[in-house]
Amino acid sequence: GGGGGGGGGGTLSAIGWSNGATIVNNYAALQARPGGAPDARIDAAATLCCPFDMPAADRGFRRPFSRLVYDRALARRLVSAVRGNLRAFRDRDAVRSLAGRRVDLDLDRLLRARTVRDIDAELTCKIFDYPSVDAYYADSSSGQRLGDVEIPMLLVSAMDDPLAPGHTIPFAEAVRNENLILAATRRGGHLGWIPDRPCADGGRWTAEWTEQSVMNYLDSCRRAAR
What are the strands, taking DSSP E only, across the chain? Predict the structure, then answer.
């Protein structure tokens, strides 16, 4: 998931988490390349629990715990979204690849998908013209593009994240690129930063420090850009 918003000073910031963080990271890198600037440029960004190495994230997805907790649940939601739009998917002239070619989807196979990888094989790769799921994951990994980022960006990860393992966190890239600030906690899992105890006022269990840190960072970037 992810989101964005413009500040009162005319700046545009983006926040992404999980695979939404992959999108934000890649977007920030793309806009820094000659001729690759999107129409809407972002001025600062923060991303949380980004799977910087998508092949490694895929391997994590296939481990027993992640397969049961993350993979199947997400696959069910994606299949449900397909079911809710079957009329569009059955229109063979409407379903086209990024290059404009008509895509021949096996809807029965897509609706039987039980993993995210199954869905990527039958849908994502065909729409975005990738020869294989592994090729798609390798190309979409944002860790390889962080050196191109030219805007202030905060990266927050957890060393024990089952989907974005600690050994894939790009510490070296963060050191080389002065635009990046990388924070890695010892624990937190995949977006599982919660306090050791309930809030004093009896409120929700929440990782207020991540929310406050991200918003404080983006607000500082907005004020610095004035």
Answer: 2-6, 12-17, 44-48, 153-158, 180-185
The per-residue b/e assignment along 12-32, b for 16 or more CB within 10 angstroms, e otherwise, is ebbbbbbbbbbbbbbbbbebb
Report DSSP state, residue 36.
Answer: -
Task: Kindly list the distances between the CA atom of residue 161 and the CA atoms of 101, 131, 148, 189, 204, in Å, as whole numbers in the listed order.
Answer: 38, 29, 25, 4, 23
Query: Residues 110-127: what's their mean pLDDT?
Result: 96
pTM tops 0.90: no
Label residue 77 left, alpha or beta by phi (over 0 means left) and psi (-120 to 50 means alpha). Answer: alpha
H or E stretch covering 220: helix 208-224
Longest dimension (CA), the chain: 57
Give the helix ranges, DSSP H, for 4-147. Answer: 19-31, 54-61, 64-66, 72-83, 86-90, 107-111, 116-119, 125-127, 133-140
**Which tokens go with 167?**
């050994």
State the angle between helix axes of 54-61 and 133-140 in degrees (0 to 180), rounded to the nearest 10: 130
Q: Which residue has the higher pLDDT, 92 or 145?
A: 145
